[in-house]
Amino acid sequence: MGRALQGIFVNETVTVGLEEIHRKIRLKDVIVGCSDWSKGSFHDADGVMGLGYGKHSFAVKAAKLFGNKFSYCLVDHLSPSNLANFLNFGNATSQTLTLKNMQHTQLILGVINPFYAVNVSGISVAGKMLDIPSEVWNVEDKGGVIVDSGSTLAFLVQPAYLATMIALTSPLKNSKRSAVRSGPLEFCYEEAGFELELVPEFAWHFTDGAKFVPPVKSYVIDAAEGVKCFAFASAEWPGTSVIGNIMQQNHLVGI
Is the C-alpha dihedral spanning 205, 211, 217, 218 positive or negative? Predict the structure, then answer.
């Protein structure tokens, strides 16, 4: 995450349109800022909208007017530019949305501020639960998992990362590893001869029974021309694991 060290910040009134009833409302005391020096991962960015759980979050201010709920859907990162993501405040009751298959899991607020933490019980690959220490998922201690639309990749702390990558890559022993490294992505393969159908199913399991099974294209990505990489990066342990936005793509996420 980025941390602005110098900049200009002001309180502003923002006018937003209400699609269903065709009128506008004003949100007062929204903080708008422009940083001229920052340290962290946000560099050369055009702008960031704060959707986190905090007193300065645009999402929190807007959601208060609509039942303290908001939702979003991120299209495939390789989609043509005429397809757009959407962000909705209030109940996701549009007729274009099918909610019958919606799963629910508890959000843990106020522990890993300003992020939305979730209670993960484990990860499975090819239907088999991996041997990952339970403390990795303990949000009340030194671990935990957050759902973050502002992070691109899935970040797993070292114990979870090592177990996951061994399980995911074991069926690909005959695939040629690529000499090309794409940032923090370690497990990359030459596209020629890469058998996508051999990539096993990956799933997040939550303590209340919910299960999130992203499609393979949400964790095996085209990182460079002719190169496919597993879209997982290693994070320090102790620390927090992250379900990033590529893994969330093509799913309706409601908070």
Answer: negative
